[in-house]
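Reminder to self: tokens first, then the designed residues, so the page reads top to bottom the way the pipeline ran.
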């Protein structure tokens, strides 16, 4: 194997090898070195970012490092291989056309990544619903969002990707979703603008019972277990009303009545945080049960009492007898 003196291309058995020149070998070595150097530097900076005390600071720092690293990687490789602007323009046009056709979903996912960052759709640590999956965001990259899945309340069990956990607590499954979902479905965020929301509990009370006392018990339980939330959320609610055309957002518990065929349904509506709702409702339920027992109040159930039966006539037929006997 010898090098051709005119074109400096390597020749194998008299056949010149396309692109196998000393200049290209140097470019290849520079490319490998540049890629390795950028990746090592990016990983080192991302590792340092993970040590930040605040999760949101660490999240945004890692995103900036990823974007800058990708730009530096692409710019360095292009600078090494294309020193002629005319050749660079032609190559970019051909590559862009091919990539746009073959990697449509990938391009959409990357575009979704920038929409998530630019639009502040969510951050790491936010509780969201994306692609039919509920949970906390634990990771985000150019292509995918990773969510620690949580269960669904009873009213949400019919939704797609239903889980076996009937409460908003972790199921243990880690779900990866393409960023392209931001263009296809709405993204529900429990904690971006306002890490609080309204929750409800229902209590059926029999007709004829002291429903006013039951209402008082519900209000007192809700006030006792949401006092800290109502105080902390005041500034957040004021800021939302300042930024958006919203009506006054009251955080005070309230009981609503609904008359059914079998009982009076009392619904207490209260303010709570995006995390810890099940523990709060558990504490409220325990207090409500204890107060209902103390006040000798019953909780209605789906049982039925038979108040009147029609007359029954039974005919018995004796062995060997052809006529029935009526007792």
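Designed residues (327 positions):
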């Amino acid at each position: 194997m010898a090098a051709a003196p005119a074109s400096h291309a390597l020749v194998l058995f008299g056949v010149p090898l396309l692109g196998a020149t000393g200049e290209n070998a140097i470019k290849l070595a520079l490319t490998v070195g540049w890629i390795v150097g950028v990746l090592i530097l990016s990983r080192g900076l991302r590792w340092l970012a993970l040590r930040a005390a605040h999760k949101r600071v660490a999240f945004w720092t890692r995103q900036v490092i990823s974007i800058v690293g990708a730009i530096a990687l692409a710019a360095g490789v292009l600078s090494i291989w294309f020193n002629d602007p005319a050749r660079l323009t032609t190559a970019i046009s051909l590559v862009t056309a091919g990539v746009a056709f073959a990697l449509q979903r990938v391009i959409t996912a990357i575009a979704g990544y920038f929409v998530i960052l630019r639009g502040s759709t969510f951050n790491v640590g936010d509780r969201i619903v994306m692609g039919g999956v509920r949970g906390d965001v634990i990771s985000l990259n150019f292509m995918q969002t990773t969510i620690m899945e949580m269960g669904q309340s009873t009213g949400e069990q019919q939704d797609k990707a239903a889980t076996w956990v009937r409460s908003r607590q972790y199921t243990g499954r880690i779900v990866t979703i393409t960023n392209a979902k931001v263009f296809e479905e709405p993204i529900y965020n429990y904690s971006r603008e306002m890490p609080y929301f309204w929750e409800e509990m229902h209590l059926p009370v029999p007709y004829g019972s002291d429903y006013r006392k039951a209402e008082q018990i519900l209000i007192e339980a809700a006030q006792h277990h949401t006092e800290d939330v109502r105080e902390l959320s005041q500034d957040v609610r004021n800021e939302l009303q300042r930024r958006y055309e919203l009506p006054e957002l009251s955080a005070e518990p309230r009981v609503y009545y609904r008359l059914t065929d079998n009982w009076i349904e009392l619904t207490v509506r209260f303010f709570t945080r995006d995390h810890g709702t099940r523990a709060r409702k558990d504490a409220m339920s325990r207090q409500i049960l204890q107060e209902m027992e103390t006040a000798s109040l019953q909780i209605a159930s789906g049982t039925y009492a038979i108040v009147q039966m029609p007359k029954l006539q039974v005919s018995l037929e004796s062995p060997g007898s052809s006529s029935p006997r009526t007792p």
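The two ends are 118 Å apart (CA to CA).
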